Amino acid sequence: APSGAPLPRERQSVPRACTAQEIERFFRCCSLSDLEGAARKVCERVHGHAVYLRGLIEFTNYCTSNCLYCGIRRDNQKVRRFRMDEGQILDAVQQGLSMGFKTFVLQGGEDPRWTVDRICRLVESIKAATRNRVAVTLSCGMKSGDGYRKFADAGADRYLLRFETSDPELHVRLRDGQTLDQRLEALDHIRSAGFQVGSGFMTGLPGELPETRLDNILLCQSLGLDMVGIGPFIPHPDTPLAGQSSQGIELALQGTALLRLALPLAHIPATTAAGSIVQNGRELMILHGANVLMPNMTPEAFKKSYLLYPGKICIEESCARSLADLKESLFDIGRALSFERADAVKLAHWR
Ligand code: SAM
Ligand code: SF4
User: What is the CATH class of 20-343?
Assistant: First the structure.
C-alpha cells in the first residue's frame, strides 16, 4: 500500500507532537477555545485548508456481536437486516468514482456471510474495476491475524477498528465480554499486516470518568495511529443503554483538539455522530482539528436500516445533495473539499 500523500510546497516543517505530559496539562488546564485555536493552527500547517473525502459504504447490518451501545447489535430484533451483494457494492463504488471519490470505506457488522475470503474477492474486484486508482479501507470488526493479512494481500489499504474506550472494565461491560486487550491485540495484527491503521473511541459513554477521556487520547498517541475516528455516544432506544443521557458535543470537540496536538499528522474525520447531535457538529469538529469527511454512499434503500443511533443525518438525502451542502458549509468556514486519496502522512515524506 502507498504510504505517503503528496504534500503542498508550503509545508516546511513538521509541527512537534505534544508530549503526554503536555497533553495531560492541556486536558486539565485549557479551555475549549484555547484548545481549538492551537489545534486549528497545527491542522492548517499539516493539512492546509483541504478537507479530504472518503465515500462510506455500509454494506451489511448483520452482526454476531452484541455491543451494548450499538443499534444494530445482534439482539436488537427490531432492525430490518440487509446485506449488500458484490454487484451492489461495485455499483456504489463506480458511482462514487464518477463523482471524484478516490477512497472508499467499507463498513459493516461482523457478518458471518461476508467471510474473510469473500471480502478479499470483493477488494480485488474493486481494485480491478477501478484500475487500482482507489484506496480501500475496511471496517468490519474483529478478525484473526491471518484474516487481516489476507485482507492486506488482497489489496486493502487501511483498516479502522476503534478501541471504543480505554477503560478495561467499561470496555468488557459495553462490548459484551470482549476485552480491551483483545481489541488492542487485533490492532497489533492490523499494523503487522501492513495497513494504515485507524482507531478511536466514543465520547460520553455511560460510566466514563474524566481520567478515561485523558487516557483515550494518550492511548491513541501511544498506538501511533494514522487515522483517529471519535464521536459522541448517542443512546439508541432499542439497546440496553436506552435512557442513558447524551453528553453533547463538547467532549468530542475537546477530544478532537487534543488528538490533533498529540498526533499532528493523523487523519481525523469529522464524524456523522457529531453532525447528528448538533446541526453544525461536523463543521465544529473541523474547526477543532479534524480534516476528513466521510459522506454516506450507501444506497438509499439500505442506509435507513444502518441506524447505530437515532437521529443519524444524511439518510434521507442523496450523496450528491450531502456533498453540495458540505461544500457550501465548508466554504463558510474557509475550507475546501478535496478528492485526493490522502494516504497516511509519513514523516519521511516531509521535505
Ligand atoms: N462492526 C465494526 C466495529 O464495531 O468495529 C464497524 C462498524 S461499528 C457500527 C462502527 C462504530 O460505530 C463503532 O466503532 C462505534 O464507535 C460506533 N457506534 C456504535 N454505536 C454507537 C452509538 N450508539 N453512538 C455513537 N457511535 C456508535
Ligand atoms: Fe457489531 Fe460493530 Fe455494532 Fe459492535 S459496534 S454490535 S461489532 S456493528
Answer: alpha beta
Ligand 2 centre and the CA of 70: distance in Å?
Answer: 6
By percentage, how much of the chain surpasses pLDDT 90? 91
| Nearest CA, atom 5, ligand 1 | 141
Domain ranges of the chain: 20-343
Q: Is 164 annotated as a binding residue?
A: yes
CA of 63 to the centre of ligand 2 (A): 6
Supply the residue whose CA is at minimum distance from atom 14 of ligand 1.
Answer: 162
Q: What is the pLDDT confidence band of residue 7, given thresholds at 50, 70 and 90?
A: low
Q: Determine if residue 310 is left, alpha or beta; phi over 0 gives left, psi from -120 to 50 gives alpha, anything else beta.
A: beta
Q: Is 149 part of any known ligand binding site?
A: no
Give the separation between CA 314 and CA 110, rounded to whole angstroms. 23
Q: What is the pTM of this model?
A: 0.96
Tell whether ligand 1 has an atom less than 6 A from the beta carbon of residue 69.
Answer: yes
Residues in the ligand 2 pocket, defined by CB under 6 Å: 63, 65, 67, 70, 72-73, 109-110, 141
